[in-house]
Amino acid sequence: xxNILITGASSGIGxxxxxLLDNKDNHLILIGRDVNKLNVLxxxxxxxxxxxxFDLEDVDNIKFLSNDMPVVIDxxxxxxxxxSTLPLKNxxxxxxxxxxxxxxxxxxxxxxxxVKTKNKSDFWTxxxxxxxxxxxxxxVAQTIYASTKAALEASVRVxxxxxxxxxxxxxxxxxxxxxxxxxxxxxxxxxxxxxxTLSKFxxxxxxxxxxxxxxxxxxxxxxxxxxxxxxxxxDGGGPKSLIF
Length: 244
Ligand SMILES: NC(=O)c1ccc[n+]([C@@H]2O[C@H](COP(=O)([O-])OP(=O)(O)OC[C@H]3O[C@@H](n4cnc5c(N)ncnc54)[C@H](OP(=O)(O)O)[C@@H]3O)[C@@H](O)[C@H]2O)c1
Prior knowledge:
Shape: globular
Mean pLDDT: 94
Number of helices: 8
Oligomer: single chain
Order of helices and strands: EHEHEEHEHHEHHHE
Distance between the termini: 50 Å
Number of strands: 7
Strand order of the largest sheet: 3-2-1-4-5-6-7
Largest sheet: 7 strands, parallel
Strand content: 15-25%
Number of domains: 1
Structural class: alpha/beta
CATH architecture: 3-Layer(aba) Sandwich
Bound molecules: NADP nicotinamide-adenine-dinucleotide phosphate
CATH superfamily: NAD(P)-binding Rossmann-like Domain
Helix content: 25-40%
CATH topology: Rossmann fold
CATH class: Alpha Beta
Radius of gyration: 18 Å
């Protein structure tokens, strides 16, 4: 049985990944803030599941989650994340701190648990962090979101090298626009009321969460064994050009 740790399992991309990995050969360890959402999710699963109610902003206490994970982790997907749309005048350190904790530093603390519990094991642990194309192409008012995702990708590149001798293989994915609650909330903030309008911004239209989850599943599997420290864009070809 594979022990698979997933953050952000209650919604969007993380939820699509849970559905994809839901079979009797997997033990899904799901971290989320809302215990009701986790309970509803686990009720319909075939896989064994362990539910951990935790707010990933509380980075100082992540180390204690090792008590709730009494197994060696075979795979880890960090799907939890928060976006922010803030013009410069509204950017401040406390807002940045909240985002960097959830988007990036919680990932590092969870990897530390994996390293600690994995000691001397002879199998590979495969890890994927969900970044965003905003890390490279962040738009207006995305200073905080884009910076935290760029930091996440940098940590993946470095830790992939640092931990390869521990048999931990790390990569990241960078989705473009995906049809999730995060995108719905962003549409409300910027005054777009129709998902079809948004589809026109991206060459292949807006992605469904499963299209991102499929790539994460591949990177978590042995099929991608020679891909290390990479960031894979899943952006449907990117934004539509205004000229061509
Ligand atoms: N949607 C897009 O277009 C898009 C594009 C590029 C990258 N991404 C990235 O993809 C990832 C998944 O996003 P999504 O679109 O699936 O968003 P979503 O539907 O809003 O899901 C986000 C998930 O993160 C969890 N989360 C947020 N803050 C948390 C915290 N403090 N502690 C624990 N869990 C927390 C949420 O749990 P709750 O249910 O408790 O809120 C939820 O399960 C994120 O990292 C996002 O940045 C999304």
